[in-house]
């Protein structure tokens, strides 16, 4: 089951859990109202998983690759980690499936507060186009993830503020309808 909570305001190491005090958990339904989708899959059989294939077919996730984020495997590691943690949005959905290791996706709620989503082996998430978010590793400093796309991959992140994009306006409209 997904683990998510409202973050504290601390500027400490972003790889720490940053649970608010008191801790305020966030459930799947609240994430769904933000357009965030979540699945728990068996990462040990990702190469031949009928459940993953079904999701990919239903949602038209036609392209995929695998990225390993750790000092030894990712070129320009320090720079990339900083880039991933800058608040940004994409013009397409961001789909990630954790095959090994762990990390955090942070997303903004309707009141612009941060929700931290802990992602570990077997967790798959879709962040909708237009949502402000960021990613960081946890203290283990390692994650191996499948990146999925509808069609050809587009890697462009638009740092906040990026409210002028049509996709951001569409996302804000979506939020207004889920109240």
Protein architecture, described:
The structure is a single chain. By secondary structure, the protein is an alpha+beta fold. The protein has one domain: Jelly Rolls. It has four helices and ten strands, in the order E-H-E-H-E-H-E-E-E-E-E-E-E-H. Strands 1, 2, 3, 5, 6, 7, 8 and 9 form an eight-stranded antiparallel sheet that branches. It is globular.
Total domain count: 1
Task: State which percent range the strand residues make up.
Answer: 25-35%
Task: Look at the structure and give the mean pLDDT.
Answer: 97
- Classification by helices and strands: alpha+beta
CATH class: Mainly Beta
* Total number of beta strands: 10
Give the proportion of residues in helices. Answer: 10-25%
CATH superfamily: Jelly Rolls
CATH architecture: Sandwich
Radius of gyration: 16 Å
Order of helices and strands: EHEHEHEEEEEEEH
CATH topology: Jelly Rolls
Main location: membrane
Binding site for Fe(2+): 88, 90, 94, 133
EC number: 1.13.11.53, 1.13.11.54
Subunit structure: Monomer. Interacts with MMP14.
Short description:
This protein is an alpha+beta fold and 179 residues long. The chain is 21% helix and 32% strand.
Features of this protein?
Jelly Rolls, two-stranded antiparallel sheet, 179 residues, alpha+beta, eight-stranded antiparallel β-sheet
Topology (SSEs and partners):
Blueprint: E1 3-6, H1 28-33, E2 37-40, H2 50-59, E3 63-69, H3 77-85, E4 88-89, E5 94-108, E6 114-120, E7 123-127, E8 133-137, E9 143-149, E10 158-159, H4 166-177
Antiparallel strand pairs: 1-6, 2-7, 3-9, 4-10, 5-6, 5-7, 5-8, 5-9
Binding site for Fe(2+): 88, 90, 94, 133
Binding site for Ni(2+): 88, 90, 94, 133
Family: Belongs to the acireductone dioxygenase (ARD) family.
């Amino acid at each position: 089951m997904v683990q998510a909570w409202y973050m504290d305001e601390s500027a400490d190491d972003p790889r720490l859990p940053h649970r608010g005090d008191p801790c305020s958990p966030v459930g799947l339904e609240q994430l769904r109202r933000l357009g965030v989708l979540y699945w728990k899959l068996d990462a040990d059989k990702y190469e031949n998983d009928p459940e993953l294939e079904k999701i990919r077919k239903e949602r038209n996730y036609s392209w995929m690759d695998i990225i390993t984020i750790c000092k030894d495997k990712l070129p320009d590691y320090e720079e990339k980690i900083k880039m991933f943690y800058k608040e940004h949005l994409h013009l397409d959905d961001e789909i990630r499936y954790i095959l090994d290791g762990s990390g955090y996706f942070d997303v903004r709620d309707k009141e612009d507060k941060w929700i931290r989503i802990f992602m570990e082996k077997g967790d798959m998430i879709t962040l909708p186009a237009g949502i402000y978010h960021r990613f960081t590793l946890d203290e283990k400093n390692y994650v191996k993830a499948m990146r999925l796309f509808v069609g050809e991959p587009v890697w462009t992140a638009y740092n906040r503020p990026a409210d002028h994009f049509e996709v951001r306006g569409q996302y804000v409209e979506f939020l207004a309808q889920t109240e």
